[in-house]
Design goal:
Layout lengths: L2 E5 L5 H17 L13 H9 L3 E6 L2 E10 L7 E4 L9 E8 L8 H15 L4 E7 L3 H9 L3 E7 L6 E8 L2
Parallel strand pairs: 5-6
Antiparallel strand pairs: 1-2, 2-3, 3-5, 4-7, 6-8, 7-8
Length: 172
């Protein structure tokens, strides 16, 4: 399987927005509130991540197949209210807004993409990488675990239905 990641570029914006919109619709079709009502990826957040060098795309067999961002912490995420981080480094990287193109779902690309983003975080010097997802997003929970993350607890984002399950990898 030919795949790799690279920094997202301004020229990727429209395709990234199609992918994240497809992801938003996919979550809605599952009855999930995650990424609904303006609380998910949007043009501004994607543009900001691209400009900051924090947006990444997954290229699979020559086409843009996924998007995610790698945000240096603290990233504004609330503390865990249940559970605890394995270690609480002063700095960490958080993976956000992961979406795979509907044309490429079901191929295991999301887990590969996250493993690649963990590698990118490691190259940037991070040993603590975190990700969270909605309790109802069972597919993403399985994907996160397949990518090597460990469940750490629960956090509550200050948005409607903001409960999120938190995961972490400690490298080193």
């Amino acid at each position: 399987m030919e795949s790799y990641i690279r920094h997202a570029r301004p020229a990727d914006l429209e395709e990234i927005l199609r992918i994240t919109e497809s992801g938003r619709q996919y979550l809605q079709d599952q009855g999930l509130s995650q990424w609904q009502d303006g609380f998910g990826p949007n043009r501004t957040s994607v543009e900001t991540a691209i400009q900051a060098g924090q947006g990444y795309v997954l290229i699979f067999q020559g086409s843009l197949a996924g998007y995610g961002s790698l945000i240096p912490g603290p990233d504004g995420s609330p503390p865990l209210t249940e559970g605890q981080w394995a270690e609480d480094y002063d700095t960490y990287a958080a993976i956000h807004q992961v979406a795979i193109s509907s044309a490429h779902r079901g191929r295991g690309l999301a887990a590969q993409f996250m493993r690649d983003m963990v590698t990118a975080a490691s190259v940037l010097g991070y040993e603590d990488i975190r990700i969270d997802t909605h309790r109802g997003n069972v597919i993403m929970q399985k994907t996160v675990l397949r990518a090597g993350f460990t469940y750490r607890g629960v956090m509550y984002l200050p948005i409607p239905d903001g409960e999120r399950l938190a995961y972490q990898i400690i490298l080193g």
